[in-house]
Design a protein that fits this description.
Elements lengths: L1 E13 L2 E7 L11 E8 L2 E8 L8 E7 L8 H7 L5 E8 L9 E7 L3 H13 L3 E7 L6 H9 L3 E5 L6 H8 L6 E7 L1 H14 L7 E4 L2
Parallel strand pairs: 7-8, 7-10, 8-9, 10-11
Antiparallel strand pairs: 1-2, 1-6, 2-5, 3-4, 3-6
Length: 215
């Protein structure tokens, strides 16, 4: 789908991290873990970037979580942070096959901006009556309130902040031998490499995991 989308709200959800909520255009359908392309014009130049959904569904509105990169990301993320409700962007999508499909137990391993799809998938899984576990590594964690709410609702949450806990230990805590379990991995390449090593240590390996590499 290609459509204009209207911003419903923008909220700060962490250090240099915002959650942008859009009004869902007619006919838009997507699952947690899929991603969209947003396009806008900054100082006369058109930019397009891909962002993974961070809302549990797209009924009425949908959300993306955006890390504002002041160095390598160019001006687009800062431009998005400057917008207000009522402003419009162009959207294409959704894209991606590594998304939630109603699995009975989900384990989401997230690094940095991977927290967006992690909370969306976790919330959707619990709403469907399924189990959820999240391991999230970041020096400046975002979406703390949603993570706390997920934990209150019965999800297992392991927050690895400032190197205070080992990724392999956390992965071992949450990955089981349950044949109905689905592992999701969202993050940059260095995080995914660390996750692959952690999964190998559990004996499960990365085969069968749904992985989105942010580059």
């Amino acid at each position: 789908m290609d459509a204009a989308v209207v911003i419903a709200s923008i909220d700060e959800v962490g250090t240099d991290t915002i959650a942008v909520e859009f009004e869902s255009p007619d006919g838009f359908e997507a699952e947690p873990g899929q991603f969209i392309k947003l396009t806008g014009t900054v100082d006369g130049e058109e930019y397009s970037r891909f962002y993974t959904l961070s809302s549990p569904d797209v009924e009425g509105t949908f959300e993306t979580t955006i890390e504002i990169d002041h160095e390598e990301g160019g001006p687009f993320s800062a431009y998005l942070a400057s917008l207000e409700p009522g402003d419009e962007l162009q959207m294409s999508g959704p894209f991606g096959s590594d998304h939630y499909e109603g699995e009975r137990r989900v384990v989401v391993l997230a690094g940095g901006p991977g927290i967006g799809p992690a909370v969306g998938i976790g919330e959707r899984a619990l709403a469907d009556g399924n189990e959820a576990a999240i391991v999230y590594r970041d020096d400046a964690p975002a979406h703390r309130e949603r993570l706390a709410d997920l934990e209150d609702r019965g999800a297992t949450v392991r927050l690895l902040e400032n190197g205070t806990a080992d990724l392999a230990d956390a992965v071992t805590d949450v990955v089981t031998a349950d044949p109905d379990e689905q592992v999701f991995v969202y993050g940059f390449a260095s995080f995914i490499e660390d996750v692959e090593a952690a999964l190998e240590a559990t004996g499960s390996g990365v085969d069968g995991a749904k992985v989105e590499n942010f580059g």
